Every structure is written in C-alpha cells, then in structure tokens.
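Weekly modeling sync, notes
Attendees: S.R. (lead), two postdocs, one rotation student

Agenda item 3: backlog of single-chain predictions. S.R. asked that every request posted to the team notebook include the full sequence so nobody has to chase files. The rotation student volunteered to paste the first one in as an example of the format we agreed on. Action items at the bottom.

Example entry:
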Amino acid sequence: MNWATAAMFGFPQPQYLPCPECGESVACDDGVEHVCDAERRLDYVLLHLREEIAELEEQVGAWLDSAEGRFAAWLAERDRR
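Predicted structure, as returned to the notebook:
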C-alpha cells in the first residue's frame, strides 16, 4: 500500500520520508526540492552493497592464497621494482 492509498483510508501520512537516492529524511509537505549530498549518497549506496563488497574481499583473499594468486602477487611486486 502506498501513502496515497493509505491517506484515502484515513491512515495518518508521515511528515518525513526517506529519499530513495541518499536515504535522508525529507519533509513531505515542505515544497522545497531535495538535492542529495554526493558524499551522503555514496555512503547510502555503499551501505546497500556491503554484503557484495565483503564477498568480493573474501574471493580476492582466496585467490591471493592460491598458487596462481601468490605468483601474480610475486610477479607484480617484482615488476614494481
């Protein structure tokens, strides 16, 4: 049920709703257009991606523990010098 439908049935409407882009609470009846802060939006996106980021870190760690990964790390270190 969306807020318009809820209002139709007499349910109280919230004063604030979260911005779908950055998560900031925005006044519903303010009339002022909300502009997302870039840093807050990045934090909000990263919050939703935290499980995928953790999984990627595990996969990279497992690859670096493999023979192929250890060789690639050794080769990268050698080429860096």
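Discussion: group reviewed the output briefly. The longest strand covers residues 16-18.
Action items: rotation student to repeat for the remaining queue; S.R. to check formatting next week.
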